[in-house]
Design brief:
Number of helices: 36
Strand content: 5-15%
Largest sheet: 6 strands, antiparallel
Number of strands: 17
Mean pLDDT: 78
Helix content: 40-55%
Shape: globular
Radius of gyration: 30 Å
Distance between the termini: 38 Å
Structural class: alpha+beta
Length: 845
């Protein structure tokens, strides 16, 4: 390793060590996105030391000063260690490097695993290395790698001598594609046998994955690497620390909770799924997305990917991957039985004393099965047996021939999403992601895969001028088979009743899977139908995210409130509308944000349980009051009230970005994206966070990914062009922003961004012409002074830039929240006027 590489590692370690253990994975994903190897090296060091404290202690443990290179081992090939002649390096990981060697005494091949030299001075690393040898050597089983001895070289380097096996890892086998079903079952049984033996000895492996499974040339499984194993009465890991390989972690392991043998059952379920499907069941962009999928998402049933697997094996996988440990197989013996194999040796020894209980349980099980068949009537389970605990509501299709009824179809869809979201135990895909499928033919399997849901609600709206017919059906996302359907004929003024009836019917169809309290959590309050119709129209226009649409939304929310003065959701909608009007400078901040605050406060007076008004209050505190403590308090309260409210995560991330807490901001943005994966604003806002953090390449990648979803999304073009400008890629910046100006209808913010790009590129004539257009106001009623100041800064007119920032301050421009971290102001940092303005908004230089 070069000194330069070691310094890179040091920089990342210095940033990651102060973070809480649960925050480190997300930080590493983002900090090392362009260099996965660097991420792996740092993660391996952290894992090996179990989060060892300060960086100086960590440096000492690595046996090298911070200024020096990471120690490298002298080449071992051709050397003799004890009685072992080292022949070739086979591979390595965070806790060891493995060589093939010859035991010169017994004339047999062995594998030697060495503790890396940079960990040799760490007592924790040595303890874990010894722990691995102790755990594996305590087990004598044909499916567990044999440990011959643990030794030490003359320079105190630890090694483990193990049996050498000709063959390949299961990871390499799967890399060539899904395994034949019979072979996958055969290998899964052997892994289960090995784990059953470990569990009988009081050892939980905790790192079961294909890379730790060797398949010999004869098809025999050898389970490797007990470095993270948990022994009874032995603790090497602090409470709350997450160890293991993320893709194979159980939900409880991912949370850092105490784990037992059932965590290995989950991991084997993941491995078995991967053998059958050729891919992992829980995936995502970055570790946090994978962790969220593990905790929240239902994997696509393996039967849908490979029908030849059969229902019986698919159910085995489903049960092994149950989120709740109590719902999984409780012992590895039980899983072995389900795989059709003999129980483990330990299990067979216990079996004879349990025969009578088994016969009794069998009789009881038959009675329970008959009762379930009588009660369930096929509604509670899809054909693959997947738990129906999640749903995506697709936009109702307006087939009435009257575009004026689009607001009814869209509004009802949104209200169904909201109402079903109140049902306890039911996870509902966010509105933005569901509406991403609007207006195009959709395969429900694609919806299930992209949104991670087990069921899909779809339907259409028909009718004459006064009458409505709503047809809806609930289908399984894995197979497209219908679970429930309903047809509702109502008068137009009864639209609220239709929505309530549909939501109640869907919840009833899923009630058996959601638990007895599911329906109690849903609210079915009556409401003035005219007020409700105005509310639907308000949300319809609010979701258009245009200046005209937002102004129309305000009108409809106000009419809803006039009809129903205690309608809390109408006040929440009004607050959201004013927030967005103020943010996009479509209304002067001094007008928009105080109205947003008043509406949000009124909503909470009526219904204190709502999350949305708290998010709006946090938004106002951030962008208008510059009250940083209050802003964070309100955002946190919104997330506490509804952890699945993706907007609150995104807005809280905006706050964290303004505070310069970039790694936390990226994590919140990723949570928002995990909750609402097809949200354009969430995707673009993650790139926007990277831009402010100075991670321009990653920002560009996020903006491009956003534009792949929607080529007409102006904001992504605006932020992409501004990022190109900061990178010095002015030709790309100008081209991108010219396109954005056309798409936006010459929005003054976008025009100002193009003027600045021209200024940076040295084209003062075009820059000044566009600046004159923006200063004149054009067609806009409000001119964003902050953006005009940025153009003057690029033209080198510091005094004019500060003067326009003073105007922005007088207007209470929301953009001043980012004054400290906006890279466009770096040339002005020494200017007294800039520092005065920075202090005025409560930020320190």
């Amino acid at each position: 390793m070069t000194p330069q590489r070691w310094r890179q590692i040091q920089d990342v370690l210095a940033a990651v060590l102060p973070l809480a253990p649960e925050a480190r994975a997300a930080f590493l994903d983002e900090a090392c996105r362009s260099d996965p190897g660097l991420r792996d090296e740092v993660a391996a060091l952290l894992q090996a030391h179990d989060g060892l404290g300060p960086i100086d202690a960590l440096a000492e443990a690595f046996a090298g000063p911070l200024g020096g290179p990471r120690p490298r081992a002298a080449p071992l090939e051709g050397h003799t260690v004890a009685q072992y002649q080292v022949q070739e390096k086979l591979g390595g990981g965070g806790m060891g490097v493995v060589y093939r060697a010859l035991d010169t005494t017994l004339q047999r091949p062995v594998a030697l695993k060495f503790l890396p030299p940079h960990l040799a001075a760490s007592p924790e690393a040595k303890q874990r290395f010894l722990h691995e040898a102790q755990a594996a050597s305590a087990l004598d089983h044909p499916n567990i790698c044999t440990i011959h001895e643990i030794g030490q070289t003359g320079d105190d380097q630890l090694f483990i001598a193990m049996a050498f096996y000709e063959g390949e890892t299961l990871k390499k086998k799967i890399g060539r594609g899904p395994l034949p079903v019979e072979e996958a079952v055969h290998l899964a049984r052997q892994i289960a046998e090995a784990l059953a033996a470990a569990h009988a000895a009081g050892i939980v492996h905790r790192d079961v994955k294909p890379a730790n499974v060797m398949v010999t040339a004869g098809g025999r499984v050898k389970l490797l690497d007990f470095g993270l194993a948990k022994l009874e009465d032995v603790t090497l890991t602090r409470a709350g620390t997450r160890l293991g390989t993320v893709s194979y972690m159980s939900p409880e392991q991912a949370r850092g909770d105490t784990v037992d043998a059932r965590t290995d059952i989950w991991a084997l379920g993941v491995v078995f799924y991967e053998m059958l499907a050729g891919r992992r069941p829980f995936r995502g962009e970055g570790e946090q997305a994978v962790l969220y999928s593990i905790r929240e998402a239902a994997p696509e049933p393996v039967l849908a990917l490979r029908p030849e697997v059969g229902e019986a094996l698919s159910e085995v996988v489903d049960r092994a991957l149950a989120k709740d440990p109590a719902a999984r197989y409780q012992t590895m013996d039980a899983l072995l039985g389900a795989l059709g194999g003999e129980r483990s040796e330990a299990g067979r020894a216990r079996r004879s004393g349990r025969r009578w209980r088994r016969y009794t349980a069998l009789a009881g099980g038959i009675a329970v099965l008959l009762g379930a068949l009588w009660i369930g009537a096929g509604l509670l389970r899809s054909s693959e047996g997947a738990a129906l605990d999640s749903v995506a509501v697709l936009p109702l299709e307006n087939l009435s021939g009257d575009p004026g009824r689009d607001y009814i179809a869209d509004g009802m869809t949104e209200e169904l999403i909201h109402t079903l979201g109140q049902v306890g135990g039911l996870r509902v895909a966010a509105r933005t992601s569901s509406f991403a499928f609007q207006g195009r033919p959709v395969d429900v399997r694609e919806v299930g895969r992209r949104l991670g849901v087990a069921t899909v609600l779809e339907g259409s709206l028909l009718g004459s001028e006064e009458d409505l017919r709503i047809v809806v059906r609930l289908v399984g996302a894995a197979d497209g088979l219908q679970i429930w359907s309903g047809t509702y004929d109502r008068k137009l003024e009864e639209v609220l009743a239709i929505q309530n009836d549909i939501a109640r019917a869907v919840a009833s169809a899923l009630e058996g899977r959601l638990g007895g309290e599911a329906l109690a959590a849903a609210a079915w309050a009556a409401l003035d139908p005219v007020a409700y119709e105005h509310y639907l129209k308000g949300r319809y226009f609010w979701n258009k995210r245009t200046a005209a649409g937002l102004h129309r939304a305000v009108d409809h929310f106000r009419q809803a409130i006039d009809r129903a003065p205690t309608y809390a959701r109408a006040y929440a909608g009004l607050a959201d509308a004013y927030c967005i009007l103020g943010f996009y400078d479509w209304q002067p901040p001094r007008e928009a944000f105080p109205k947003a605050r008043a509406a949000a406060q009124r909503a909470l007076e009526i219904d204190p349980s709502m999350a949305e008004p708290h998010a709006a209050l946090g938004y106002v505190a951030l962008y208008y009051d510059w009250d940083w403590e209050e802003s964070e308090r309100q955002f946190r309260r919104a997330i506490e009230r509804n952890p699945r409210y993706a907007v609150a995560h995104q807005w809280y991330a905006n706050y964290l970005t303004a505070m310069g807490r970039f790694e936390e901001a990226a994590r919140e943005m990723q949570w928002g994206l995990a909750l609402d994966p097809l949200s354009l604003i969430n995707a673009a806002a993650l790139g926007w966070t990277y831009t402010y953090a100075g991670r321009y390449d990653e920002a560009v990648e996020e903006f491009r990914r956003t534009l792949e979803m929607d080529r007409s999304f102006v904001l992504a073009y605006l932020w992409l062009g501004q990022t190109y400008e900061l990178q010095g890629r002015t030709d790309l910046a100008v081209d991108t922003l010219r396109h954005a100006v056309g798409l936006s209808g010459r929005d003054p913010i976008v025009v100002a961004a193009l003027a600045r790009a021209y200024a940076v590129a040295g084209d003062r004539r075009r820059a000044e012409a566009l600046l004159e257009e923006v200063e004149g106001g054009g067609a806009a009623g409000y001119v964003p002074s902050y953006e005009i100041a940025a153009v003057y800064a690029a033209l080198g007119h510091a005094g004019a830039a500060v003067a326009w920032l003073d105007r922005a301050y007088a207007e209470r421009s929301h953009s001043l929240a980012f004054l400290k971290i906006d890279p466009r102001w770096r040339p002005l940092h020494p200017h007294p006027g800039f520092r005065r303005r920075l202090a005025a908004v409560g930020l320190t230089p």
